[in-house]
Design a protein that fits this description.
- The protein has about 55 residues and is mostly helical.
- The chain has one domain.
- Helices cover about 60% and strands about 0% of the residues.
- The chain is built from 2 helices and no strands.
- The longest helix is centred in the middle third of the chain and has 16 residues.
- Keywords: Membrane, Transmembrane, Transmembrane helix.
Length: about 55
């Protein structure tokens, strides 16, 4: 087996999860130049969720 090779059938299932993880990891690092009100509200909700833990 090629070890590192990703099964093409698995890729469609894995890719969305990887994208979500990467986005969640990057969101706190991004300056709020994504000036979409929806994204700002979402960021505030996430921050409140983290703070309330």
């Amino acid at each position: 087996d090629g070890g590192c090779e990703v099964d093409p059938d698995a890729a469609p299932d894995v890719l969305p999860a990887v994208v979500v993880v990467v986005v969640l990891l990057l969101l706190p690092e991004l300056p709020v130049n994504l000036s979409l009100p929806a994204e700002r509200m979402y960021d505030q909700e996430v921050a409140q969720l983290w703070l309330s833990h």
